[in-house]
């Protein structure tokens, strides 16, 4: 639908409701003309739900060139669910250089992120 990505990006960056921002991020992952830049700012949103949905969308879109952003979320975000989403997104990008970072998360930290990192490592081994 023409203009959908722009409307969702506007909601993602400007709506006061975290639920609306999270829904906009999630939907951007399904819109063909969505761009990486429309989702990048959401990775620094104050709400973990918004960051998590942006990571899921980035993973679905398999945007190139966001490896540093995904690693930053994996290694530095304090929310376990956000780290797990980052691990999954990294598995979708398919870059072998992230294995050490995934191993570190798989061997420590919260269980959800560790499981997601283990899954991501298995996916990268395929």
List the keywords.
Leucine-rich Repeat Variant; mainly alpha; 2 domains; globular; 8 helices; 126 residues
Please explain how this structure is put together.
This protein is an all-alpha fold. It has two domains: 1-63, Leucine-rich Repeat Variant, CATH 1.25.10.10; 66-126, Alpha Horseshoe (Leucine-rich Repeat Variant), CATH 1.25.10.10. It has eight helices and no strands. The chain has helices spanning 4-14, 18-28, 36-40, 48-61, 67-76, 80-93, 99-106, 111-125. Helix 1 runs antiparallel to helix 2 and helix 5 (67-76) runs antiparallel to helix 6 (80-93). It is globular and about 40 Å long.
Characterize this entry briefly.
With 126 residues, this protein is mainly α.
Q: Report the CATH topology name of the largest domain.
A: Leucine-rich Repeat Variant
Shape: globular
Number of domains: 2
Q: pLDDT average, as an integer?
A: 94
Enumerate how many helices there are, as a single number: 8
Quantity of strands, as a count: 0
CATH level-4 homologous superfamily of the largest domain: Leucine-rich Repeat Variant
The Cα radius of gyration reads: 14 Å
* CATH architectural arrangement of the largest domain: Alpha Horseshoe
| CATH level-1 class of the largest domain | Mainly Alpha
Unreliable stretches, pLDDT < 50, 5 or more residues? none
End-to-end separation: 35 Å
Please specify the SSE layout and strand pairing.
Layout: H1 4-14, H2 18-28, H3 36-40, H4 48-61, H5 67-76, H6 80-93, H7 99-106, H8 111-125
Helix pairs in contact: 1-2, 2-4, 4-6, 5-6, 6-8, 7-8
